[in-house]
Specification:
InterPro entries: Gas-vesicle_GvpO. It comes from Actinomadura livida. By secondary structure, this protein is of the alpha+beta class. It contains one helix and four strands, in the order H-E-E-E-E. The protein has one domain. The chain has a four-stranded antiparallel β-sheet, covered by helices on one side. A hairpin with an 8-residue loop joins strand 2 and strand 3.
Length: 86
């Protein structure tokens, strides 16, 4: 069975390959009922100057016990530094 850290690493690799965008961080991780991992990966969608104006996105991925991508989707977009309520 795959560890949480390996699942996060594999999910980040898959998102990079699928989107061509830079990974900022892994912002969430949980095991699903099927022994898969759901991993939320934050990426830089658009770089701006200053970087506080960058557009970020969170992609929700699911990887199986072998580290293969089962599915992914963009769950939200936002400006760097903005909170949920801004």
């Amino acid at each position: 069975m795959m560890s949480a850290s390996e699942a996060a690493k594999r999910a980040a690799e898959h998102v990079t390959a699928m989107t061509g965008r830079s990974i900022e961080s892994v912002v969430g991780l949980e095991r699903t009922d099927e022994d898969n991992w759901r991993v939320m990966v934050e990426v830089v969608e658009t770089r701006r100057i200053p970087d506080s104006a960058d557009v970020l996105a969170v992609y929700e991925t699911e990887v199986d016990a072998d580290g293969e991508l089962v599915g992914y989707r963009r769950s939200r977009r936002y400006l760097r530094g903005r909170t949920e309520r801004n």
